[in-house]
Amino acid sequence: MPILTFGTEAQKARYLPRLCDGRSFGANGASEPEAGSDIFSMTTRAVRGGDRWVLNGRKVWITGGPIADVFLCFATTDPSKGVLGITAFLINRDTPGFHVVREIPKLGMRTAPMGELVFEDCELPAENLLGREGRGARIFNAALEWERGAILASVVGTMRRQLDRCIQQARTRKQFGQPIGKFQSVSNRIVDMMTRLETSRWMIQRYAWLKQEGKDATIAASMAKLHVSECFVQNSLDAVRIFGASVTLSRGAWSAMSATAWGASSSPAPTTSSATSSPSTCGSDRWMSTRPVGLIASKTWAWKKSTAQKGKEPRFRSPGRRGG
Ligand SMILES: Cc1cc2nc3c(=O)[nH]c(=O)nc-3n(C[C@H](O)[C@H](O)[C@H](O)COP(=O)(O)OP(=O)(O)OC[C@H]3O[C@@H](n4cnc5c(N)ncnc54)[C@H](O)[C@@H]3O)c2cc1C
Predict the structure, then answer these.
(1) 202-213 b/e with 16+ CB inside 10 Å = b?
(2) Measured between alpha carbons, how far is 262 from 250 in angstroms, rounded to an integer?
(3) In DSSP terms, which residues pair with 49 in a beta bridge?
(4) In order along the chain (324 residues), what is the average pLDDT of each group of 10 residues?
(5) Distance CA 225, CA 234 (A)
(6) Taking Cα atoms as reference points, which of 168, 22, 3, 181 lies closest to residue 89?
(7) Active-site annotation holder among 123, 147, 230, 313
(8) What gap in Å lies between CA 27 and CA 30, rounded to an integer?
(9) Residues 108-148: pLDDT tens digits?
(10) CA–CA gap between residue 39 and residue 32 (Å, rounded)
(11) Å from CA of 259 to ligand 1 middle
(12) 3 state SS for 126-172
């Protein structure tokens, strides 16, 4: 979108067809080790020399960094002007002096790899400047409005799937002689999850409608990102609680969905000692699972160590060893 909105005709022709049909992948480089929330305090420096720019600096947390072909990066062309000194540049991956130095491992969303970028006397032709010199903040904010509003649209689908699975679990899992959904504390959770799903959907649709109408969507985009992400974390925690011990044994999509909750919360994970309980009979019936995660982790480690000493393979793997 920044290229479409601020690019020259030559830049649009060069980059957009490949980005749109998937032959190219783009990334956005703004954050630096010392410039996070205070993004316009960035120190990556671009100095003009004739018809070329020379960039030096470092960017971190760049989504898509390890795989992108083209990067929209921000640098200061005049530190004395603060935010008005920020300028945007388009950089091809193979530009001399531009390096993707490492892939940063992540807790969740591991299919979107994250990288760190370094500029070492990286020379760019003048035509790689996007927009006008000193207008980078405007481009950054415009790009971020799209990102904030749209990035969590897919999460609404995940929340829908999460909810469907929780309803199914509440109907089929029986404890104390009845489906757990008959307990009000479980059905209330499902009502709350559904309400969060609906409000999230509406906020994203409202943002999309504002964009479609050509209206200012800055606040709507920020509110949507805040609301949907908070709701997703909360729904993931509720889903983990509804599934009880069985969630600790799942893999793949279900684990990915609840990874947000695992990472975001310091509250005790609803788990029982898998080494001793039988999944079909000994869940909440036996004891309410509120043991601190640290205690369980240290017990798991001790148990693994003892089984390893006896030459046996551990029967389950901790979340830290999950593949994918
Ligand atoms: C999954 C993911 C993907 C990302 N992808 C990209 C990307 O593609 N490109 C890119 O450039 N960056 C990316 N980032 C980086 C992201 O933009 C930064 O994480 C964000 O700007 C916050 O900076 P920080 O992490 O350094 O936190 P900090 O700024 O250090 O903030 C730490 C804490 O301090 C609080 N805080 C900071 N300032 C204030 C204040 N004034 N008042 C009150 N509280 C404050 C924050 O709210 C936060 O709780 C990504 C981050 C994540 C997590």
Answers:
(1) ebbeebbebbee
(2) 13
(3) 52
(4) 94 96 95 94 94 96 95 96 95 96 88 94 96 94 90 92 95 97 97 98 96 93 95 95 81 53 37 33 31 34 43 36 32
(5) 14
(6) 3
(7) 147
(8) 10
(9) 888 889 999 999 999 999 999 999 999 999 999 999 999 89
(10) 8
(11) 19
(12) HHHEECCCCCHHHHHHHHHHHHHHHCCHHHHHHHHHHHHHHHHHHHH
Q: Which DSSP category does 109 fall into?
A: -
pTM: 0.75
User: In the structure encoding, which two tokens stand for residue 176, read together?
Assistant: 């104390």
CATH fold of 151-321: Butyryl-CoA Dehydrogenase, subunit A; domain 3 (1.20.140)
- Give the pLDDT confidence score for residue 291 in this predicted structure: 29
Q: Where in the chain is the domain with CATH 1.20.140.10?
A: 151-321
The conformation of residue 246, written as its DSSP 8-state character, comes to: G
Ligand 1, atom 38, residue with closest C-alpha: 37
| CA–CA dist 270, 292 (Å, integer) | 9
Domain at 2-132: CATH code:
2.40.110.10
Q: Which atom of ligand 1 is nearest to the CA of 59?
A: 11
63 C-beta closer than 6 A to ligand 1: yes
Tokens of 257: 């969905």
CATH 2.40.110.10 domain residues, the chain: 2-132
The residue whose C-alpha atom lies closest to atom 24 belonging to ligand 1 is 36
Is the Cβ atom of 68 under 6 angstroms away from ligand 1? Answer: no
Rounded to an integer, what distance in angstroms lies between the CA atom of residue 9 and that of residue 260?
41
147 is catalytic: yes
